[in-house]
Design a protein that fits this description.
- With 72 residues, this protein is mostly helical.
- The protein has a domain at 1-22 and 39-61.
- It has helices at 6-18, 37-61.
- The longest helix is centred in the last third of the chain and has 25 residues, at 37-61.
- The chain starts with 5 loop residues before the first helix and ends in an 11-residue tail after the last helix.
Length: 72
């Protein structure tokens, strides 16, 4: 669970540095399923950014040559 909410911890760290006050707003508890697409957006954006950067490196530099000693 914590690996999927990295952006919450990062935002909390930034708020701590700049001493931003966050109001306490209790949420009502419901047993109805909801669409949490907005919560997934930061992770999807990082996924797209990572895949895009890897594709760019592969196209412009001819691939990632990080482990050349593994060739058989």
């Amino acid at each position: 669970m914590s690996s999927g909410t990295w952006w919450v911890y990062t935002l909390g760290f930034i708020y701590t540095i700049f001493r931003v006050e966050v109001p306490y707003l209790p949420t009502p508890k419901r047993d109805q399923p909801r669409n949490n697409f907005i919560l997934c957006l930061p992770n999807l954006l990082m996924l797209l950014l990572t895949v895009g950067l890897l594709a760019t490196v592969r196209i412009t530099m001819g691939g990632l040559r990080l482990a050349t000693f593994i060739r058989s």
